[in-house]
From TrEMBL:
It holds the Pfam family Uma2. This is Putative restriction endonuclease. Residues 33-191 form the Putative restriction endonuclease domain. Coiled coil: none annotated. GO terms for molecular function: endonuclease activity. Keywords: Endonuclease, Hydrolase, Nuclease. The lineage of its organism: Bacteria, Bacillati, Actinomycetota, Actinomycetes, Micromonosporales. The keyword Cell inner membrane does not apply. It comes from Micromonospora matsumotoense.
Length: 200
């Protein structure tokens, strides 16, 4: 099997035929080192890992979440295979679980039913990701979704918290730049998007 990691989009080989079992056999290979692999309806989507600035922002946010999340009985993880079906999974940038996986299988392929909140970092002006993590989480009933829009200018960094109801994901809170995003649920959240960037 030949795998392509150039650009963003479905890998053409085995398109529509990817499952967690096939991924376990084929994905841990050198050609995919340094890439994120997600799957939508059996179509594998491979994207490069984010640049350093985005990695710092992700780690900073996850670290900020840990004390309040743990006090509320939640567990903050980094990127995991958040799995909806055997042929559909995403990799949020930060994943908050209400229950830790049970056993090796769930640790590799974390059931979406264990997820309290998925966090996605997107770069302002970037091409739309074909995975549509927000829609997948909404359809699976993940209660909360946080989207952070990255910008090199701290004052334009944006964070939007969405809480699921019967009609989808209405906006619960939004903050831009040095404004603070505050929410009591799903655990106490209080941060300013601009503070996620490393100091210049």
């Amino acid at each position: 099997m030949r795998s392509s990691t150039s650009g963003t989009g479905p890998v053409p080989e085995l398109a529509g035929g990817w499952t967690v079992r096939r991924a376990e056999r084929h994905l841990p290979v050198g050609a995919l080192a340094g890439t994120r692999h997600e799957c939508v309806d059996g179509r594998l989507v491979v994207t490069p890992f984010p640049p350093a600035v985005e990695s710092v922002a992700t780690a900073t946010l996850a670290s900020a979440f840990v004390p309040a999340a743990e006090a509320a009985g939640r567990h903050v993880l980094g990127r995991v295979n958040l799995t909806f079906t055997a042929s559909c999974w995403i990799q949020p940038d930060v994943t908050v679980l209400h229950t830790l996986p049970a056993g090796d299988e769930q640790e590799r392929w974390v059931p979406a039913t264990l997820c309290t909140m998925a966090v996605e970092f997107v770069r302002r002006g970037a091409r739309r990701n074909p995975v549509d993590r927000l829609r997948r989480c909404a359809a699976a009933g993940v209660p909360w979704f946080l989207r952070v829009e990255l910008d090199r200018r701290p004052q334009r960094m944006t964070a939007t918290l969405l809480g699921r109801d019967d009609g989808g994901y209405p906006v619960v809170g939004r903050a831009v730049g040095h404004q603070r995003l505050r929410s009591r649920l799903p655990f106490p959240i209080d941060f300013a998007p601009a503070r996620l960037l490393p100091p210049t």
